[in-house]
Amino acid sequence: MLTFYFNQWEVALAKESLADNLKRSYKYTTLGYLGYLQCQGGLASIHNARTCTREVIQEEQPASWQAQRWKDALNWWFKKPRVSGGTTQQQISILDQTCEKTLPIC
To answer: Where are the domains of the chain?
Structure first.
């Protein structure tokens, strides 16, 4: 399974030519996904990003535009390192941090 590592994502996001509200949404979506990984003790992969998104959409029942924005944010997170030459094949694990609850993706 291919796992992803993008430790400078906040810097890369700040440099994107997106509206501020989209940058905020992408940031909170990414933080929600990373919180999900923390709770699951997993590695970042396309498979678990899809699982996370599906679970949050079922739970939150967002408007279709909001669900699409979450998907767009995670697509950005997975695609940006490849476009910018960042590392995409190193494994990451967030097992050492305490998790009380999965963060909602905003």
So the answer is: 20-83+90-106
